[in-house]
Structures are given as C-alpha cells and as structure tokens.
Design a protein that fits this description.
There is one protein chain. The protein is of the alpha/beta class. It is built from 13 helices and 24 strands. The strands form eight sheets. The protein has a five-stranded mixed β-sheet with strand order 6-4-3-1-8. Strands 16-14-13-9-18 form a five-stranded mixed β-sheet. Helix 4 (134-143) packs across helix 10 and helix 9 (346-354) packs antiparallel against helix 10. The protein binds zinc ion (ZN).
C-alpha cells in the first residue's frame, strides 16, 4: 500500500471519492482557509445497536434482555483523502464472527464508498450484549429448541442504521490537520486471569471479570499492559476525535439480562458528555487473558468505581496530547487464515449441537466451533489492518488475543506509539500464545486455532508494522 504525502492526498481523493463524499468535501473546503492545507477529512458517525427485549445475550447461554441500563452503540469515523476512504468502528457487542463480521465491513464499506479491506470493525466485548455469528445462528435455528444466537432481522436493522449513519456523516466531514498521542497508566483495573497455577505452570482456576474468591484476588496482578493510550485527531486547534485503547475484559458484572456498555463504555460516555464536539471512541485491546477480577468482587458498587478509574486514565492520557501536523498516512492489510485445532471434528460437533441432553452453552458453543471449521474450509481469511499516521500506528487484530500480542506489537516498533484494538473478526474465539497452550485453562480450552496461530499472527503483525 502507498505511503502518501499531503500533496498526494489531494490527487488521490479527486480520483476516488464517491459522490456524496465529494460534495461534502467541497463544502468543507469552502468553509475556511485551514482546509486548503490538505485534503484529509474525518467524518464521525454513531448508531444505536441496543438489542430488543428478549434478545439473546452472549450467544444465548446467559439471561436474555429484560431491560436496558444504558444503550449500546457503534461509534467510528470515515477518514477520507488518502486513497479510498478508511473506516474505523468500535461496537459495544461481545463479538462479530465470521460472516457477521464480513457483513459489517461490507455494509460500512458500501456506504463510505470504499472496499471492505479498508474497514476495521472491532468489538468492545461487553457480555450483556449480542455475540453475533450468522453461521452459528443458522445451525441453532435448525435445531428448533435452542435460544437464538442473534436475531437476524435486528442484525440487518443495525446494518441499515450503519449505512444511514455513514451517509449522513459525510455532511459532518471536517478537515484533519493534526494528530496527537498520549498514554497513562490505569490504576487497579486490569489483571491477568491466569495467575493461579500449579508447580508445573498449569492453570488451576480462572480469575474472571468478577472474582468473589479472596485468595484469587490476593494473587499478584500478573502480566498486563497498564497503559491506556489515546490517539486524537484535530482540525487546526480543535480536537474532533479521540480513540482510547485499553486491554481488559470490560465487565464489572453481567448475566442479569440488563444491557449495559459497562465500565469502559460508561467512561467513554462520560468523556462524550464532557466534550460533545469530539467523537470519543473506546477500543478494547488484547484482553483474552485480562479482566478486572483482582480489583472487582462483582458487587454493584464496583461498576462506578471501575468506570471512574478508566475515565481518570483517559483524562490523564489526554493531558499529554501534543498535536503535530500530519505528514504521512498509510493503510496496510494482511490476511490470516490459521488452521483449526485438530481436536475439533465436524461430525462430533454436529452431534453435540443436536444432543438435547446437553446444556445450552454446550450446544451453542459447538456451533461457533463448527462455524470456524467451515469458514476455514471456505478459505475466507481474517483481515488484519494497521493505520500509520506519522509516528502512530493503530493496529487491528481479531478475536480474543492474549495480552502478549499487543506487548509484542509495541516492541516491534519501540519508537512509535502502537495502539492495539483486538476483537475484530471473532471467528477463532481465544488466541493464546504458543507457550500457553500446554498450560490449559479455560481460554486454551475454547481456542479454536492450532497453536501455530502464534507464528502466523506474529508474521502478519510484522508485515503491518515493519
Ligand atoms: Zn472474552
């Protein structure tokens, strides 16, 4: 892919812009002298993705929606003026897997006048939220007696809202002249889930999002990435978008049927209230083995406390922002198609799904596994992507990657700020690092890829970041 100077932005846009976007840009160019400095534009969009009453949450094995504590949103922006438009979007859902993830990228791409490989859709991963896999939904629907994984009509309505939001965003397009980054350590939120081990290193119990066991909470924090990173975009002096990145499962408690964006989403919503003219977006990093368990006993009082800690991290990270003019911008992609675990066998999975004596989770979960097997057979790759702007890299990874991947990504480019958003295409579920497979535990038990995913994902990251 090309590295574009500001001069080239202008040449590229005139060649590639879609009609609505072209008109919007022409208006913006008439607005003031600063837009003459370049032709990079940012159009923020947001749309509601709150599921209706009765909708399945987390794939159907926890209580379905009884009420909404606060809404779920898809929030992003279209970046235009560097070749075909680029779309970044964060969604308050547990996951978007396989065909569901492809459908989102296609719909947003069509609306923005670009190609799906220039669209990154990343979930925040709350659990009182939809966990959408259309392939798995077809499998459980065939059974007739299982709770739906996702209501397909609702899913389509969300995509319609997305298309409309992007089309309308063209009118709100603003020039982008500067970018800045900052980071701050978040206090007492993230902790490693896999700290309780025997002398051989095998994981004996998971310290989950909420942990009522005092002994587990007393164990060390373990390996985490304590940094909340913020990347902000400016129109001259004015901050128009701020992307926040932090790696933890974002739940304080769940399973009560009350939809919520939970502490990460609530912190983001508070920043949005503070600054209505800036689009605040929160991305969850590589949190496969990270949750708030050490600091969260799951009591309801903890949700506002964890919200405040993430919010404080955002404020501190934003204190360090020093806008610099944008000189270079580059979008890169790499395809990834890791082979499934050899323990997954299609016939056995079909039997598990059909076995009415199994619990819902032990029938719906195999449908996600079978969806992954069939997707690999169809050879539909996962698309990894990175947006490089000056000395900043925004990295988009799939599924529930272990924290080691984002630490590695930062080490690959120590002189740049590398901000990682995981939970893109959720098809593979957990993505442990190779060393952790022999140590077992919950995450390894529901990792759908062969351990060679570690090497393959590492190669993909190197391609994107080199
Ligand atoms: Zn998870």
């Amino acid at each position: 892919m090309n590295s574009l100077t500001r001069r080239k932005f202008i040449q590229h846009t005139s060649a590639t812009a879609a009609g609505g976007w072209l008109a919007a840009r022409a208006r913006a160019d008439d607005d003031g002298p600063e837009s003459g400095a370049g032709n990079l534009h940012l159009a923020p969009f947001r749309f509601d993705v709150t599921p209706p009453t009765g909708h399945s949450l987390c794939g159907g094995w926890i209580k379905p929606v009884v009420d909404v504590d606060d809404s779920l949103e898809a929030i992003g922006f279209v970046l235009q003026g560097a070749g075909l438009p680029i779309v970044l979007c964060a969604v308050d859902w547990t996951g978007l897997l396989n065909e569901a993830h492809v459908s989102w990228r296609q719909a947003l791409a069509e609306a923005a006048g670009t190609t799906p490989d220039r669209v990154a859709v990343q979930c925040v991963h709350q659990h009182n939220a939809p966990f959408a896999c259309l392939d798995a939904e077809r499998m459980v629907a065939e059974q007739g007696d299982l709770p739906h994984i996702v209501d397909v009509d609702f899913f389509r309505r969300c995509l319609d809202r997305g298309r409309t939001a992007i089309e309308q965003a063209a009118r709100k397009s603003r020039p982008v002249t500067h970018v800045a980054h900052g980071q701050a350590m978040v206090d007492k939120v993230a902790s490693n889930r896999r700290v309780y081990r025997d002398e051989l290193g095998h994981v004996k119990a998971m310290r989950g999002s909420a942990c009522s066991n005092e002994e587990l909470r007393a164990l060390p924090e373990g390996r985490i990435d304590p940094w909340l990173k913020t990347v902000a975009f400016y129109d001259g002096q004015q901050k128009i978008a701020a992307c926040h990145y932090y790696a933890t499962h974002p739940m304080s408690y769940y399973g009560d049927g009350r939809v919520t964006s939970d502490f990460a989403g609530l912190a983001r919503k508070q920043r949005q209230v503070d600054e209505p003219d800036c689009q605040h977006i929160y991305f969850t990093g590589c949190a496969g083995n990270i949750a708030a368990g050490k600091y969260n006993d799951g009591s309801h009082e903890m949700r506002p406390i964890l919200t405040q800690r993430v919010y404080d991290g955002m404020l501190l990270a934003e204190e360090n922002l020093q806008p610099r003019s944008i000189e270079t911008l580059e979008w890169r992609t790499a395809n990834l198609l890791p082979p499934p675990r050899n323990t997954l066998a299609a016939d056995a999975l079909r039997d598990q799904i059909a076995d009415k004596s199994n619990s819902v989770v032990n029938r719906n979960r195999p449908s996600y596994m079978l969806s992954w097997l069939e997707r690999v057979e169809r050879q539909t790759p996962i698309v990894l992507s990175a947006l490089h702007i000056g000395d900043i890299s925004l990295l988009h990874l799939p599924a529930e990657c272990f924290i080691q991947y984002q630490l590695r990504a930062q080490q690959m480019q120590p002189s740049r700020l590398v901000a990682t958003a995981a939970y893109g295409d959720g098809g593979p579920w957990y993505i442990p690092v190779n060393d952790e497979y022999p140590h077992g535990g919950y995450e390894v038990g529901v990792a759908f890829c062969d351990p060679q995913v570690d090497t393959m994902l590492g190669e993909g990251m190197r391609k994107l970041l080199a």
